[in-house]
Amino acid sequence: QVQLVESGGGLVQAGGSLRLSCAASGRTFSTCAMGWFRQAPGKEREFVAAINWSGKDTYYADSVKDRFTISRDNAQNTVYLQMNSLKPEDTAVYYCAADLSGGLGSLLEVYEYDYWGQGTQVTVSS
What we know:
Elements: E1 3-7, E2 10-13, E3 18-25, E4 33-39, E5 46-51, E6 58-60, E7 68-73, E8 78-83, E9 92-99, E10 115-116, E11 120-125
Parallel strand pairs: 2-11
Antiparallel strand pairs: 1-3, 3-8, 4-5, 4-9, 5-6, 7-8, 9-10, 9-11
């Protein structure tokens, strides 16, 4: 079993930066693929970024490509999401998720993930 706790959210002005962290407990973290998703009020949860178990392969939604960077530290059981050049449309609750298969699927879909954190709010003011 994997427990995930996100942190680092907050209020930032447009153009600013935030770094989200997701701390994982459990012995299987280093074999899990990890993803970040977000959900704005009244909208479905959407894919933001993902990273395979080794950190070698990363994936991004078109809306965040070249602005966000996902990374992981398996020694610290932590995955990060560095968010730069933030826009008001990035406002959402951000969730990290763990895929126990290590990334055998596309990593783009909610249903591919086995465990979820509680989420952290990111608000970008214009």
